[in-house]
Amino acid sequence: MKMQSLAQELSQNAYPGRGIVIGTSQDGTKAVTAYFIMGRSENSRNRVFVEEGEGIRTQAFDPSKLTDPSLIIYAPVRVLDKKTIVTNGDQTDTIYDGMKQGQTFEESLRCREFEPDAPNYTPRISGLMEVKRGTFQYAMSILKSNNGNPDSCNRYTFTYENAPAGEGHFIHTYMCDGNPLPSFEGEPTWVGIEGDIDTFTDMVWTNLNPDNKVSLFVRYIDIATGLYETRIVNKNK
Predict the structure, then answer these.
(1) What CATH number should be reported for the domain holding residue 225?
(2) Which of 117, 151, 174, 194 has the lowest tally of Cβ within 10 angstroms?
(3) Domain count, the chain
């Protein structure tokens, strides 16, 4: 497998949909994550990220234009002890509640499947980061329809231990734009992680399609101390 440029992965895809990046900073001291959302409809584009506790949630930018909140208003990021949960839907709460009750990341998602948005059947993508006692490991999950068949759900979990400095993985909901939208295929893409939090945030935001990008969240967590920095970028201001 060849490491890919995250900038190219983003810039060459007009509509990856929603995406999660997790990895280790270039200097090896930070656990890194990014989550972005895009939209084609007015309802999907009418959103911003706002901080909520140690995590974030989506919020309607103009409440008067909100037509259907079911799949667009949720908490993408929540923190449980030393674990940071990042997802593209309300399964954030499912993972949080399951792990609080002693389930694993994978077990907590057994009760969920892809989104009920026929004909796209958008995959549910999720990530879990654990920074503990100076170590960092992470996992990523995708729940998707069986090649567009809504009667069958395919479940994939990928785990990564001791990720080398400057490396990470990228998973997103759609391979490209289309009708219906084609679901992500394969394992998370191996990508490079470069720069400090501001450089990385600017790179991701700049390379997302300018018409379709909506919001971006980036967090750098110090692996030694657990302290973190967060950046949020919203197209709607």
Answers:
(1) 3.60.20.20
(2) 151
(3) 1
Question: How far is residue 137's CA from residue 34's CA, in Å, rounded to a whole number?
Answer: 16
Is the Cβ–Cβ distance between 218 and 230 less than 8 Å? yes
Within-domain flag for 1: no
Q: What is the mean pLDDT of each run of 10 residues along the chain (237 residues)?
A: 96 98 98 98 96 98 93 96 97 98 98 97 98 95 96 98 95 96 97 98 98 98 97 97
Helix H segments across 73-195? 91-100, 105-108
Residue 108: which domain range? 6-234
Beta bridge partners of 129: 84, 138
Within a domain: residue 183?
yes
Whether the pTM exceeds 0.85: the reply is yes
Task: Provide the strand spans (E) within the chain.
Answer: 19-24, 30-38, 47-52, 55-60, 77-80, 83-87, 124-132, 135-146, 149-161, 167-172, 189-192, 213-222, 228-234
